[in-house]
Amino acid sequence: NVSYVDKANLVNQNRLTIEYRFDRRVMKQGRIHWDMNLDTCELLGWGNDAFFGIIPSKNNVTNAFSGIGWDVSVITWTQLPEPGVVRCGAGQYDIILWKGGSDNLVIGADAVLAKSFDIDVTMSHVIEINCPESQTTHGVIPVEEEYGLESTESLSVPETDGRELHQAVFGVSGIPGEVTVPKGGFAELGGGGFGGGGNVDGDYYDADNDYEGLDECIEIAVERAKVEMLDSHRQTRVSFDVPFTHAAFLDKTASISSGITATGKIVEVADTINADTGEAITRII
Predict the structure, then answer these.
(1) pTM above 0.85, yes or no
(2) How many Cα neighbours within 13 Å face the side chain of 172?
(3) Which of 26, 85, 137, 160 has the least CB density, counted as fewest CB within 10 Å?
């Protein structure tokens, strides 16, 4: 008769969740387009001389772009029309003799803007450790453990607004016309601009330049889980009966393989005699 004395602490599956938190600097880039949305005749004052007085300078446009909080990386300008005769109607007098204008005045622009900001990143690792033989005998007896690790290194820069570019362009002011994000203008560029040091992967930069601490944490957690499962099996005791014997002594090693396979030190011995049958047995734990 083989039975368990204490099975409550037995564990044969350990699911580890290890979370690692660190700072990440994200770089985003995108294109924006600005246009006064006027044809050449309107720009030159045909039928309405108000527009020419409000054509902005390159500096006006650059300041307007910068005002949304993104860094202006590259700007391609649309200049005023070249000098010449501009026909604005069918009549012989429906023309403008355009002598040209300042190179500093512009009627459109395409720009690449960039922005970096910090976020907290939590990297999760899930590791499952199993004891197959024990699971075959006893079924799966699981336990879950969680560990947390936080990087001691910081990017040490002020947190900035991480709004997407299509939201930010609503803040452009001080210039006539319309500012838009071209279709695909944000996604095509994605990120970039980081170089040297740290963990650089396209559009982000990690403050922690290696994962040695994380590797050590994982290694320690796995080894600890193995020890805990082994210890749970060692502390799970079984009892069995044998014909009366004087050979069972405490601290001696005994083995049994009869439905349950167990090997370990003897911690308790009890001898009993059935008064009716005279049968004598020794119970070993």
Answers:
(1) no
(2) 27
(3) 85
Nearest Cα to 69, choosing from 158, 174, 171, 156?
171
pLDDT in tens, 75-98: 999 988 888 887 777 765 677 777
8 A C-beta contact, residue 181 and residue 70: no
Q: Is 83 in contact with 100 (CB distance < 8 Å)?
A: yes
Residue of 49 and 229 predicted with greater confidence: 229
What do you get for the CA distance between the two ends of the chain, in Å?
12
Contact 149, 214 (CB under 8 A): yes
* Length of the chain as a residue count: 285
Asked if residue 257 lies in contact with residue 19, where contact means CB atoms within 8 angstroms, the answer is no
**Are 181 and 166 a contacting pair, CB within 8 Å?**
yes
96-130: b (≥16 Cβ within 10 Å) or e: bebeebeeebbbbbbbbbbbbbbeebeeeeeeebe
